[in-house]
Amino acid sequence: MGLTGASFPANFPVLDDKNWNRWSVQMKAIMGFQELSEIVENGLPELAVSATEAEKTLYKEHKKNDCKAMFLIHQCLDEAHFEKISEAKSAKEAWGILEKCNEGVEKLKKVRLLTMRRQFKLMQMESGERIAQFFNRIISHTNAMKACGEKISDQTMVEKILRTLTPKFDHIVVAIEESKNIEELKVVDLQGSLEAHEQRLIERSIEKPVDQALQAQTSRKGG
User: Fold this and answer.
1) Tens digits of per-residue pLDDT, 133-184?
2) pTM above 0.90, yes or no
3) Structural domain boundaries enclosing 45
4) What is the DSSP letter of 86?
């Protein structure tokens, strides 16, 4: 689709009831690319009754840009949002309606995010929980936080995980902190290291009863 003569992708972002922040950032970039930002922000200038031919020509250009901006907005809405702006007379009016109707959604996201931050702070590995299960809980929770606009780095997640593992992982945590640059350690790499250590612990716990049984048999034979 070439609205300005330049090639432009046809897979536009679509606004739904969950993605206003991301959608508005993407749309502002698209409007900027199409040189339509000013018309969306400021609206159509008024045309005076005594306008000159040059002013009328300029107004027609502004009107054309407003139509292009409206067309883009229409292409990027789900059905529910389209109904809300279907009677808007300008791109500025349409954008204002969208901003207003999504304010409540954003406020709700902020409330949810505060709750999830508290929950994240209290999360820790449970006794008997496997590394994979704990990582799944952490990643699922942080993904939900990110969906509400939170920015969480791998470093934050790594530090959180290392602080909240069960005591049986204490010595491997110390080894990781001493041997690796925590600021550069990826969550997936940390999970791999901890799962390998967990597997060794499991194998040792299996071997120990077998060794004890063999020792008991030897002792009985010797007696």
Assistant:
1) 999 999 999 999 987 789 999 999 999 999 999 999 999 999 999 988 889 9
2) no
3) 20-105
4) T
End-to-end C-alpha distance for the chain, whole angstroms: 90
Same domain membership, residue 216 and residue 131: yes
pLDDT digits (tens, 9 = 90+) for 155-165: 999 999 999 99
pLDDT top residue among 10 and 48: 48
Residue type, 28: K
CA distance 212 to 201: 17
Question: Phi and psi (nearest 5°) for 77?
Answer: -125, 145
CA-atom Rg of the chain in angstroms: 30
User: What is the rounded CA–CA span in Å between residue 189 and residue 187?
Assistant: 5
- Rounded alpha-carbon distances, angstroms, from residue 96 to 12, 28, 38, 86, 174: 20, 13, 14, 13, 54
- Domain edge (last residue) among 105, 138, 161: 105
Rounded to whole angstroms, the Cα distance separating 51 from 48 reads 5
- Residue in the block written with tokens 């080894």: 175
* Domain end among 105, 138, 173: 105
Backbone phi, psi, residue 118, to 5°: -65, -40
Q: Which residues is 15 bridged to in the sheet?
A: 77
CA 137 to chain centre: 16
The greatest distance separating any two alpha carbons of the chain, rounded to the nearest whole angstrom, comes to: 120
pLDDT at 1 over 60: no
Is residue 63 scored above 70 in pLDDT? yes
